[in-house]
Amino acid sequence: MDLLTILFAVVLSLGTTSAATLGVVQTEGGRVQGKNIPLGLFRSVDVFKGIPFAAKPEILEKPKPHPGWSGVLKATKFASRCMQISVLQTSSFGSEDCLYLNIWVPHGREVSSNLPVMIWFYGGGFMVGGSMGANFLNNYLYSGQEIADRGNVIVVSVGYRVGTLGFLSTGDSDLPGNYGLWDQHASIAWVHRNIRAFGGDPENITLFGESAGGASVSFQSLTPHNKGLVRRAISQSGVAFCPWAMNKDPHKVALQVAEKVGCPTDDRMAACLKSTDAKTLTMAAPRIVQGSPDAPGVLHLTLSPVVDGDFLPDQPANLFHNSADIDYLVGVNNHDGHLFTAQDVPSLSKDKTTPVEDIRRLLASYTKEFGQAGLDVAFAEYTSTWESSPSQDSIKKAGVDIGTDYIFLIPTQTAIYLHADNSKSGRTFSYLLNEPSLMAGPGKPYNDWVGSDHADDLQFVFGKPFVTPKAYADRHRDLSSYMIAYWTNFARTGNPNQGNLKVPVSWPEFTRSGHQFLEINAKMNESSVGQEMRLRFVRLWTSTLPSLQSDGVTHAQ
Ligand SMILES: *[C@@H]1O[C@H](CO)[C@@H](O)[C@H](O)[C@H]1NC(C)=O
Ligand SMILES: *[C@@H]1O[C@H](CO)[C@@H](O)[C@H](O)[C@H]1NC(C)=O
């Protein structure tokens, strides 16, 4: 062999081995072909965009199976987002035909098989959101590529209906609601039936999601309908107990929507709503209004899941036997409430002075059902570490803590305790992300002490510090690699410490007696393991305040 032949042979073998790809894949609906993206020597990812997992849904009906197609579906373009209101709430965009999913499959020298599978559910308050391409400008926040490549897992992202089309309910069998949750369930069942053909292990499915997506993961693990389909679950900043995650009076919202679209509010209401066009229904959603300390914004989110006697046969607290064998990794960001509370209490911003009265008013809104006594005891708790003449930082931090506790942290602790208390083989892992905000610091818009705000976890889980390195520092790449390691190890083995990737600190399981959790940040070390997260405040909200109830009515949780 001459040198040229040898060189050719090398080039050819490189060419063939680095192009490991699934090619055309046979699914239950027909054949699909994605696109292979080379990522380096012997490394590539097959990306499938816009595969239908259900037919175009009928308005306010459960999803139905897709009729299928002939020929090869070119799965190279994202589908539309599910129809939703625009940011300004003056128009709608997206499509009714939105029950599609995307799949990222990593390959080495050989085509992959039997990989763990992670299914992503986006957030957006059950009102908005999408995983079909760019979320903002050119930034496709939810690309599964980094997680798939680094963690050697399959990533799937799905579309589900939101707003009126996803969650309108009359609170009875006329319009039971939860359509968006049924969509998610249909996507999980599709993945379970089809993912083997993509190189996935149907017995190794992990759900993950953030905010309303995290709450969705919580509902999907509590429903009896996913028995045998889901092995593990990750909820980031959202669980079923969040005050915005369930609507306790859906009939009232249905009446408002009916009036807006000109439907009768008697027994003809459901039929009339079903025959109303999708755009009109979407625009009839209750407006999301600017909050204030006396009427915080999250209390206005009313198009959300309901106890319908089917998908959710009972209150979430009574459904934990259904997740007894599901491994659950769940947590919050230490300033998850900042985004919302800064809207409700504008004086919290860096350049303004916050009167103590603003904090008291915010707390009064959240403790309303517990009366003056409730406000007094809660106020004493949140101000217990204040100086005799409290600094602005102390006052502002208390405001953010109140928002974080009420909207996210305490409901999340409730879910963690219940999961651990009811588990059989399912393990529980609890975290608190407390990386300083990229928006905080001298010359930046946020107060210097602001930690991880709502949605700050997303960029690290999806590997953005690697995708757009200039926007981040090395510490953010460290943190991103830690989170991807914990998350994908967990998807692979049910234990965030064990799997393909090395982790910086061993994350102990949350146990019934130890209540351990892990503080996650770029500088984490052995002392990042804690116990009994915010126990004083967990006690305040779950025990002290409810015991003060004097009106005899049973309240949330
Ligand atoms: C999941 O994947 C891991 C790693 O490939 C494997 O050890 C395990 O047996 C798989 N199945 C289940 C049900 O965990
Ligand atoms: C762990 O991190 C904390 C906070 O950054 C630091 O104060 C402490 O010295 C570190 N401990 C070790 C053992 O490195």
Structural class: alpha/beta
First and last CA, distance: 76 Å
Low-pLDDT segments: 552-557
Which ligands does the model contain, each kind named once?
A: 2-acetamido-2-deoxy-beta-D-glucopyranose
Q: Indicate the CATH architecture.
A: 3-Layer(aba) Sandwich
Q: What is the fold named in CATH at topology level?
A: Rossmann fold
Number of helices: 16
Strand order within the widest sheet? 3-4-8-10-9-11-12-13-14-15-16
Q: Report the sheet with the most strands, covering strand number, pairing sense and barrel closure.
A: 11 strands, mixed
Strand content: 15-25%
CATH class: Alpha Beta
Please report the total strand number as a whole number.
16
Mean pLDDT: 94
> Please, how many domains?
1
Describe this protein's structure:
The chain has helices at residues 3-17, 145-151, 163-167, 179-194, 212-222, 250-261, 269-274, 278-283, 338-344, 356-366, 371-382, 392-422, 456-461, 464-467, 474-493, 535-548; strands at residues 24-27, 30-33, 35-40, 43-52, 72-74, 84-85, 92-93, 100-107, 115-121, 154-158, 200-210, 232-236, 327-333, 428-433, 516-520, 529-531. 52% of the residues are buried. The protein has one domain (45-55, 76-556): Alpha/Beta hydrolase fold, catalytic domain (Rossmann fold, 3-Layer(aba) Sandwich), CATH 3.40.50.1820. By secondary structure, it is of the alpha/beta class. The protein contains 16 helices and 16 strands. The longest helix is centred in the C-terminal third of the chain and has 31 residues, at 392-422. Strands 3-4-8-10-9-11-12-13-14-15-16 form an 11-stranded mixed beta sheet, with helices on both faces. Strands 1-2-5 form a 3-stranded mixed beta sheet, with no helix packed on it. Mean pLDDT is 94; it is low at 552-557. The chain is 33% helix and 16% strand. A hairpin with a 2-residue loop joins strand 1 (24-27) and strand 2. The structure holds 2-acetamido-2-deoxy-beta-D-glucopyranose (NAG) (2 copies).
